[in-house]
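$ ./design --mode recover --in tokens.txt
reading tokens...
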């Protein structure tokens, strides 16, 4: 959600509606968790490729480049 899309409703006595803020935090957290999981999967895949390259195709890491 971009900054322009997100506008908290103001409370009667100033500040923000608690539920709006909590919903935003939960949404941001969920987005972060999903992105982190995606990056970890990509890291694991690349590590596996590196491992295969080093173990089976080359006696030296510099030969994999």
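writing sequence...
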């Amino acid at each position: 959600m971009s900054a322009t899309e997100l506008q908290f409703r103001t409370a009667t006595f100033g500040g923000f509606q608690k539920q709006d803020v909590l919903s935003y935090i939960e949404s941001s957290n969920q987005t972060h968790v999903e992105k982190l999981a995606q990056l970890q999967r990509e890291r694991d895949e690349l590590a596996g490729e590196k491992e295969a390259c080093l173990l089976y195709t080359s006696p030296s890491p510099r030969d994999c480049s």
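exit 0
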